[in-house]
Amino acid sequence: MTVNVYDLANDLERAIRALPEYQAVSAVKSKIDADEEAKKLWSEFTEFQMKIQGLMQTGQMPTPEIQEEIQSFGQKIEANPLLKEYAESQQALGVYINDIERIVFQPLQDLAKTDA
């Protein structure tokens, strides 16, 4: 029996979209898009995250100033009910995504193992 992995991948994509956790992320994202203050803060936060990731990829550690900015963003997000809900719902969905990623990449990890 031949399995079409593309069909399985498409089924998985549809199943993820049907998850209550995905629906929760989608619903709160719509609320954020309708709230200019929340939308602006989230946009600033994601730009800041990309900046930090760029630093980390080049082996640089965040400076004390950047660490203060991280804390400041964390406090602002915690203080905004929509953004707090969004972050929490993303974490819940992330559990599924991490598990799926582990399962999908397991065959490649098995191939990389050496029997030495």
Number of helices: 5
* Average pLDDT: 93
Helix content: over 70%
How is the biggest beta sheet arranged?
none
User: Would you give the CATH topology?
Assistant: YheA-like fold
Q: Give the N-terminus to C-terminus distance in angstroms.
A: 34 Å
So, the CATH homologous superfamily?
YheA/YmcA-like
What fraction of the residues are assigned to beta strands by DSSP? under 5%
Describe this structure in words.
There is one protein chain. The protein is mostly helical and 116 residues long. The protein has one domain (5-112): YheA/YmcA-like (YheA-like fold, Up-down Bundle). It is built from 5 helices and no strands. The protein has helices spanning 5-18, 20-33, 36-57, 64-79, 81-112.
Structure characteristics:
single chain; 116 residues; YheA-like fold; 5 helices; UPF0342 protein HHO37_07165; Com_YlbF; YheA/YmcA-like_dom_sf
